[in-house]
User: Which sequence fits this backbone?
């Protein structure tokens, strides 16, 4: 548990500067560092500490070890009418997404639906920064990424799947921000378990098993053992689907392969990524009005809320209240920046 | 609980004959009756009693009441490069799927990805008969259908979503049948709860709440109350996504609208339907080999199995062992056939 005195309050501009500085001295060029820093800033802005500055030391270590290419130039293949295929040149995924997204949006507007795949890149498993801009452009987006194997298949006690998140984003009318959800196929996101371990907090039962396959509430034992999929075999089916859609279609590494090729630098794993974009206007011209009717119906009962709502509330507060960063993390990143 | 003497053993040909006979005397023309009977036969063949002959009395009642059009002529619009839009002419969905699928497959092979939507039709919420033929044609299929509101949103105790299943089907090499899963967004499929109620069996805790929002294991109380999504808020997010993809994009009814327009004839609800097809060869030429590697890795540990495996095992046994139908159901359908 951390006392108030053990944290540092900084603005989003300072978050960006810290991230950019640390990534740059660790070997990333401007375009790569900026694309990663954008995601880190969005995570801190939206109250998702598990994908914010918390990840920077790992990203920097994987740049320094050469596992990730900080000067990656993603190669974008748009030859097929409905597909954008990207080879990430062994870099971080955000630059690959940024380079491919305009083509995806163009193809979806032309055909009604299009897909983007990425292989040879390291994804952070925060998907809403990938899908929300597509919804900002008026399209529906569904995205899947696999990662490093930490989750058991149905009936198993050994890791095969990653936490394999999926994200779903839709545009809304009247200047409202898109509705976006982003959820792991595991009961708990790995970043949250890492934070619990760091802070010495217990995790709920059912999140995972220890190395011997026994239930445990010790986050360190689960990190060393195996995570469980949400909702039993149904969540495990979804984790498997994500594995096939994200890695099978892109040619990226399956999560168990990414784990074999992983070095313990806490950086992101190489895996695969799929984004599907659909132009709702080409499907049904009343789409937005219809979706608002659904949302009103959902929210008519007390206690309900839309997925992603908590993130939007954070987003409104952050520019005023700034961001609170654990002091040890702040000092760790400052040391990277100054040490180079 | 039913004793052996209370069931009738019949062949799949007899299942088809019963279904065709009952639907035809209830007002369905040949094409419509045949498309529905095909799904019923597949369900009985694969051990899915909840979508087999069990549903025939409801289908016949909804034909007789005129709620469903037994002479539907689905209208197929293929104008957009990546979309097949179908108006089901107020009939049962299987004929609409059958008419639209060849166009979906052709578009997916040309572009890499394509979508098919259906509105104005009544779907049975068994999705694998829709997706498996697409995988038989060498494509990956993902499908979503909403239904009649029976499931609460996250934090709610009143029905807004349907049981909203999704299905995922992929082709496999070496003459193996496709891997297909088909799972409700609710903890339990409604058909299973209906069968438990019919047989007087309790259902597990967590499946649903009674009309007052209290947990119960009485299937009748849950049918009268509300079902819960699998895996808590994550399953509820998926149920919401299905609602938007299936009904929002197609122009079909949302589940709460379908409920308002529903008469208690136990027939299927009108809602919306989305199928996405992807040609894996246009994404990555090693797709099949890669997927087999994933499956071998999953199955390396004792106790694991592939989703849909139980259905394939049933499928092999059924032609030899025939199908066991509860005698009261058999007699009910025979009465429909002879009474007209």
Assistant:
């Amino acid at each position: 548990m951390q006392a108030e005195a053990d944290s540092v309050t900084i603005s989003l501009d300072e978050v960006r500067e810290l991230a950019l500085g640390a990534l740059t001295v660790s070997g990333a060029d401007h375009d790569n560092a900026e694309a990663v820093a954008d995601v880190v800033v969005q995570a801190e802005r939206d109250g998702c500490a598990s994908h914010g500055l918390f990840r920077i030391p790992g990203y920097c270590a994987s740049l320094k070890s050469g596992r990730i290419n900080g000067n990656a130039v993603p190669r974008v293949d748009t030859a097929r009418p409905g597909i954008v295929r990207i080879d990430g040149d062994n870099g971080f995924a955000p630059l690959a997404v940024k380079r491919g997204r305009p083509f995806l949006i163009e193809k979806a507007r032309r055909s009604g639906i299009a897909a983007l795949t990425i292989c040879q890149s390291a994804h952070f498993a925060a998907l809403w920064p990938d899908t929300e801009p597509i919804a900002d452009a008026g399209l529906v987006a569904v995205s899947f990424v696999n990662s490093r194997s930490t989750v058991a298949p149905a009936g198993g006690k050994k890791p095969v799947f990653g936490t394999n998140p999926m994200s779903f984003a839709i545009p809304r009318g009247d200047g409202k921000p898109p509705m976006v959800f982003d959820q792991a196929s595991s009961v708990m996101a790995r970043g949250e378990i890492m934070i619990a371990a760091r802070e010495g907090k217990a995790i709920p039962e059912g999140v995972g098993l220890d190395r011997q396959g026994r239930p445990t509430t010790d986050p360190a034992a689960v990190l060393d053992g195996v995570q469980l999929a949400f909702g039993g075999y149904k969540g495990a089916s979804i984790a498997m689907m994500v594995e096939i859609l994200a890695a099978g279609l892109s040619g990226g590494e399956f999560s168990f392969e990414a784990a074999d090729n992983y070095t313990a630098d806490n950086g992101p794993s190489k895996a695969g990524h799929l984004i599907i974009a659909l132009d709702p206007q080409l499907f049904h011209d009343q789409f937005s009005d219809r979706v608002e009717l659904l949302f009103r119906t959902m929210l008519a009962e007390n206690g309900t809320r839309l997925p992603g709502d908590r993130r939007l509330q954070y987003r409104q507060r952050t520019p005023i209240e700034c961001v609170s960063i654990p002091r040890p993390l702040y000092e760790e990143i400052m040391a990277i920046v100054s040490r180079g």
